[in-house]
Amino acid sequence: MINKIMYRGYRFPPEIIQRAVWLYYRFTLSLRDVEELLAERGIEVTHETIRQWGIQFEPAIARDLQSRRPRPHSRWHMDEMFVSIGGKRMYLWRAVDHEGEVLDCLVQSRRNKRAATKLMRKLLKKYGFVPTTIVTDHLAAYAAAMSDLRVSVRQERGKRKDNRAESSHVPIRRRERKMQGFKSPGSAQRFLSIHASIYNNFNTCRHLISAANYRQLRSEAFAAWRRAAGIAARRARTRPINSSCVIKLTNPCIRSGRGPADDSGRA
Predict the structure, then answer these.
(1) Do 24 and 34 meet the contact criterion of CB atoms below 8 Å apart?
(2) Three-class SS of residue 11?
(3) What backbone phi and psi angles, to 5 degrees, belong to 236?
(4) How many whole angstroms from its chain centre is CA 140?
(5) Domains of the chain with CATH codes
(6) Each residue of 201-231: pLDDT tens digit?
(7) In terms of Cα–Cα distance, which of 60, 18, 50, 67 is closest to 232?
(8) What is the pTM for the complete model shown?
């Protein structure tokens, strides 16, 4: 059972903290972008504070989201990609299932059998079952890793067969460009693991479903996020926010478009 996240001792209410970290991990934004978005809403917080919130709260939120995910598809796609970490070229090993769910990722310095074995062992331990099919590129390390682990899995290799894994690299490339490269292997591993859990929760494949189904899945994703973050939905909240932390979220001059507000707060 995952413990509930505690926000006691923080100057800002939980709603603001979770909104800041959600913006950073959900969208391709820098810490300073999130700082500016919050400042536009009247929330004065530094980018370093947002970074510390992410370090403190996001691992627990990601673990909770991951624990609530259904069992992945039995057909796995595995691939590796180059990433720039501290100015050095390294390899990011990734696995996704046949429906686009990110299974796991692993930052390694080499592209060999040892790295492939480490990724596959991590996946088998995490999900507790052996897939029926693994789709890879022509790298021989995957077959050698399966032989060392003594697992009987059908392996498919061929042109365009691994497009599912190749396409899943796109969000990572966007974040890499926005962050101007990762700073260290440890920070890259932490960020990408958290990013994968949040991406899975909000990835609804909207181009394959109707608008009504998309809205329903989106609502369920937000409800799962609030449960993981330990925050009740706004309509169910009965305890008022501390008056010292009340934030004016909307400028009445902008909302009405009729000029400045008077002393009563009306436009």
Answers:
(1) yes
(2) coil
(3) -100, 0
(4) 30
(5) 1-68+204-256 (no CATH), 75-190 (3.30.420.10)
(6) 999 888 888 999 999 999 999 999 999 998 7
(7) 18
(8) 0.79
